[in-house]
Amino acid sequence: MSYHEDSSASGQEEPWVNWFCSLKGHEMFCRVERSYIEDGFNLYGLRGIVPNFTDCLDLILDRIAPDESDDSHLTQSAFTLYGLIHARYIITAHGLDTMYNKYANKDFGTCPLIQCCGQPVLPLGLRDEMGVDTVKIFCPKCQNVYHPSPIRHRSSYGTSTNSSSAIDGAAFGTTFAHLFLMTFNNLVPDGLSEESAYVPRVFGFRVHPSARQRSANSSITSAAAVGNAATSLLSAGAAKKPSNVTTTVPGVGTGNGATMENYNDDRNKLGDNAVASKPTVASAEGKGKRTKRGKSKSEDSGGSSRRKSRNGGDNDESASSRTKRQKRP
After folding, report:
1. What is the distance between the alpha carbons of residues 155 and 66, in angstroms, rounded to a whole number?
2. Distance between CA 317 and CA 274 in Å, rounded?
3. Which of 195, 212, 152, 151 is nearest to 28 (CA)?
4. Is-contact 78 60, C-beta < 8 A?
5. Which of these ranges, 2-6, 39-43, 280-284, has the smallest mean pLDDT?
6. Can you give the pTM of this predicted structure?
7. CB-CB contact of 149 with 136 (8 Å)
């Protein structure tokens, strides 16, 4: 139900701030004092962030009638403006006191962790800019941040389709939760003890931490084995060449781009011609050898004849010497 319908149904004009905080899902919001909103110093820097700043401010302060406002755009901008004002108000002294009562009543919810035993939580924004993230809850006992329950962080006000929208985390900011605990340090609980930590067990026996390490190592080993198998398959596929693939060798064979088969045929032909030409070379070498041998025989015959002539000469000389010796008295 919109602000205009709610006001007309009740028969009286309800302040816009009260109507906003009474919406389902807005339990985390507190009512900002009118005097704080009217002070221009507290609104410094918001004029450039929120569109239709003046109209939204008049709507929040009930300066304009419900019939004069645009329900689709102006109210959404008023939601944004009130959220930014709320983030500044809750870190003041009056704002911290107001939030203290809501914390004591557990209006913000409790921690979902079982070991915290229903510890009250505080609203927290992870960013101070609007439209970045939704509101979270912070547990001072376990020091963890959680998502709040859907009922507490979703607004019942929406567009014409009545769809719920999440509360922006910038409406509470990054400072409030920690400043609240620093201001009211008596509310800071003791941390979780080691005995309260959950211990996993299998058939009543504690699971040793090495079991997780072994499972992690086995998963890493299996992943490495799969990687090695894939690498071997890829290398084997690359080494195996298809039989129907022909490789063109440019400039070899009869054509400009002959295939490897033609190249092998030409190479075989060249090999046959080289083998056939070898006897010719051998015959030439044989002729050369035979020629040399013939020359040596002639030389030997000439030498023998000369030896014979020399022997003949020697024989004649010996015969003449014998005849001379015989004639001597």
Report:
1. 20
2. 65
3. 152
4. yes
5. 280-284
6. 0.60
7. no
